[in-house]
Write a structure and sequence with these properties.
The complex is a heterodimer of chains A (112) and B (113).
Chain A lengths: L4 E3 L2 E4 L5 E6 L6 E8 L3 E9 L2 E5 L6 E5 L5 E5 L8 E8 L7 E2 L3 E5 L1
Parallel strand pairs in A: 2-11
Antiparallel strand pairs in A: 1-3, 3-8, 4-5, 4-9, 5-6, 7-8, 9-10, 9-11
Chain B lengths: L8 E5 L4 E6 L7 E8 L6 E6 L4 E2 L4 E4 L5 E6 L8 E9 L14 E6 L1
Parallel strand pairs in B: 1-9
Antiparallel strand pairs in B: 2-7, 3-4, 3-8, 5-6, 6-7, 8-9
Classes of the chains: A mainly beta (112), B mainly beta (113).
Chain lengths: 112, 113
């Protein structure tokens, strides 16, 4: 089975722009979670989707949004990028609630 | 917020057992203990999880104390490839926050030759 894939792997954007990141979960997995990792704050939960519905949301501003499609693929969007949004964005999928999460390789976003 | 406490760093000789401790003194009855590791700039990798019994799989063993306030992850024969940051996480088994993992700072394990 293929693992969680994330595209693109690396991205450079300018402050004020917006960005969309994509995540394809493991086949059959219905839950997708997103995390942001920075050296200062570590790994922080952004949001989680299950069957196209956002089920959990972390403490991030409204500039961060996401969605999940009927095939469980998910996208996250960050609008009006700030320098502090530079981070590794990780996506994780899980087949069911009580199962472990499997992480993708991440998208490295640099905002200049 | 993370509900676990781990030492920031540990080291271990190659071939020896690595024992990584974790304190989770406020753990609730419906919370599991999960362990993940992250090799530099890669996505975290699931290792093992348990509720109250000791668990073992092909990667590691998890020892949970009887009062469930602490646990130890054991890598029986550490290799250089086990050098990573190890995260101990407590996670509810059901409810509205089920899909959410709280990562602390973890333990940087360095395996030396």
């Amino acid at each position: 089975k293929a693992g969680v894939t994330q595209t693109p792997r690396y991205l450079i954007k300018t402050r004020g722009q917006q960005v969309t990141l994509s995540c394809s979960p493991i086949s059959g997995h219905r839950s997708v979670s997103w995390y942001q990792q920075t050296p200062g704050q570590g790994l922080q939960f952004l949001f989680e989707y299950f069957s196209e519905t956002q089920r959990n949301k972390g403490n991030f501003p409204g500039r961060f949004s996401g969605r999940q499609f009927s095939n469980s693929r998910s996208e996250m969007n960050v609008s009006t990028l700030e320098l502090g949004d530079s981070a590794l964005y990780l996506c994780a999928s899980s087949p069911r609630d009580e199962y472990e999460q499997y992480f993708g390789p991440g998208t490295r976003l640099t905002v200049t | 917020d993370a509900k676990t406490t781990q030492p920031p760093s540990m080291d271990c000789a190659e071939g020896r057992a690595a024992n990584l401790p974790c304190n989770h003194s406020t753990i609730s009855g419906n919370e599991y203990v999960y362990w993940y590791r992250q090799i530099h700039s890669q996505g975290p990798q699931y290792i093992i999880h348990g509720l109250k019994n000791n668990e073992t799989n092909e990667m590691a063993s998890l020892i949970i104390t009887e009062d469930r306030k602490s646990s130890t992850l054991i890598l029986p024969h550490a290799t250089l490839r086990d050098t990573a940051v190890y995260y101990c996480i407590v996670r509810v088994s059901r409810g509205s926050t089920l899909g959410r993992l709280y990562f602390g700072r973890g333990t940087q394990l360095t395996v030396w030759p």
